[in-house]
Design brief:
Elements (H helix, E strand, L loop, with lengths): L2 H8 L1 H17 L2 E5 L10 E4 L5 H7 L6 E4 L3 H12 L3 E4 L7 H12 L3 E4 L13 H10 L2 E14 L7 E13 L11 H26 L15
Parallel strand pairs: 1-7, 2-5, 2-6, 3-4
Antiparallel strand pairs: 6-7
Helix pairs in contact: 1-2, 2-4, 5-6
Amino acid sequence: MSVLKRLNEQRPEFLAGILVRFIRLISSTMRVKTVGQENYPSFEKCLLCGWHGKSFVFANRFRGKGYWVIISNSNDGDMQNHIFTQLGYQSIRGSTGRGGARVAMQGVKVLREGGTMAMTPDGPRGPSGEVQGGVMLMAQRSGSRLIPVGVAAKPCKRFRSWDRYMIPFPFSKGVIVFGEAFEVPLGASDEQVEQIRLDFQRAIHACDIEAERLAGHSLESLPLPPAARL
């Protein structure tokens, strides 16, 4: 068992503290540009949705605002919960996937009260780049807007994990792109919700590709998931 894995299982708060310092250190050297945020005077009652592998830049850029996140009840989730709490987020523990009705309803309550949720709609285990149904349910039941978010950094390290997790290098250029909002009408049929889901999924990929372009990456070399080509 590796030292990091042992720390994660036995003292997740200690490892989280180290990682928060790492995030803050790298982020303090970055130049982060936001595009499209001017279209949203407030993110109140919104779900900000970007892919799981791009959370590093967003998490630090919007720290300390009291936004809500959903974090699984796994060992890894314990560490992530400590990280996001230390960055100033509020958390709901669980998953909006199978058996996640309770978590989804907690999210609906937060949104109805005017809260902002930062979501990775393809998490916590993928498939990468595919919007899951729980996000759509929360938007529909709460009447909240879905906002697609794209994130990029250059130079960066992309790991060979399921989500190709990206960590920016020190002094890198970061870009966050906000697209046009989507709504899921309360009376929409299953077929209509599915069409909105697919359109929203394409919008997140479009924002992501635009962020990569603005950061200076060659689009031909990007490791795009299969869903980005649908």
